[in-house]
Amino acid sequence: MTIFEPLADKALRREPLSREELLSVLTCSDDDLLDAVAAAFRVRRRHFGRRVKLNYLVNLKSGLCPEDCSYCSQRLGSAADIVKYTWLRPEQTREAVDCGVGAGAARVCLVASGRGPTDRDVDRLGSTIEQIKDDHPDVEVCACLGLLSDGQAERLREAGVDAYNHNLNTSGERYGDICTTHDFTDRVDTVQRAKHAGLSPCSGLIAGMGETDDDLIDALTALRELEPDSVPVNFLIPFEGTPLAGKWDLDPRRCLRILVAARLVFPDAEVRLAGGREIHLRGLQPLALHVVNSIFLGDYLTSEGQAGAADLEMIRDAGFTVHDPAADPATDSGGADGGSGNGAAAEPAHRRDLVKPRRRGAGTALPPNA
Ligand code: SF4
């Protein structure tokens, strides 16, 4: 038995892990890392089989934010080279949603920069959401509009919104280091408002902002108290033009350890591999699918992600299947799909593009590819 099996057993019994146990995951050696992933996979498989839920981001309003979150390319004073625009028109939003759903997304995440929506913003968005639900009744709609004030969560729920995302991002202790225009309790308050209104709470973190292992455990513990249904784990995308530009603290194995810790804290919640996976996990992305059960498809709010087709191929090649909201149960809990790859999309019949005749190196006038 590996040192992580008892932790997986605890998670499967829904018992919280101790700080020491989570530290043993975050500090495990490279020799032990695959054992940690295997333990997390056992938990993931129990609740989600080999299914991967796809989520699709639509940035309704980009940049021009008055808040100063230091990790964010849309922040006050950001010099990041991003697209900036005010609210998309309803038809532009629906077009973007159609694209994500057409590619397999089970959830669309409608995001707007800013401190929080005005009542007028909520009203305007409400009719767009009703149209989206008419177009795609099986698809979940998540809103992410910032801090909510009285009655807004309820009105979003009435319009058909299923979930609300508001990340805690880091520990309460560190929150003042990454943002000064709102505080940790504001964030907690909005997640609670969403939950009380009947919206499915989605709240996660960003790793790679200079936090310690203890900070990460504090953030996971604070999130656990909110009982989120979904937990996005982001890895800092250190945009030039933001205060955290040049901060590259993460490596692929560190990212895996963080994901394993998140899975053991949230055994039956949707743990979502979110922003920054391509640049930080790099070649270990398929291994991370054994821990998480959800990813964003395609691009992020202000940066480009791996192409959607490459995501789908990665899922298929790793032996996982895309969660189909029309065919699978609404919640992903219970049951494994088995380990044989049954139900996976067919392998591509022809990948002639992968076989390229060599035109360089020995016997040619061009230097070799070494
Ligand atoms: S995270 Fe949200 S609130 Fe903070 S700066 Fe970015 S867009 Fe504004």
UniProtKB/TrEMBL annotation:
HAMAP family: BioB. One of its GO terms (molecular function) is biotin synthase activity. Its cofactor is [2Fe-2S] cluster; [4Fe-4S] cluster. PANTHER family: BIOTIN SYNTHASE, BIOTIN SYNTHASE, MITOCHONDRIAL. Binds 1 [2Fe-2S] cluster. The cluster is coordinated with 3 cysteines and 1 arginine. Catalyzes the conversion of dethiobiotin (DTB) to biotin by the insertion of a sulfur atom into dethiobiotin via a radical-based mechanism. Pathway: Cofactor biosynthesis; biotin biosynthesis; biotin from 7,8-diaminononanoate: step 2/2. This is Biotin synthase. It comes from the Bacteria. [4Fe-4S] cluster binds at residues 65, 69, 72. Gene3D superfamilies: Aldolase class I.
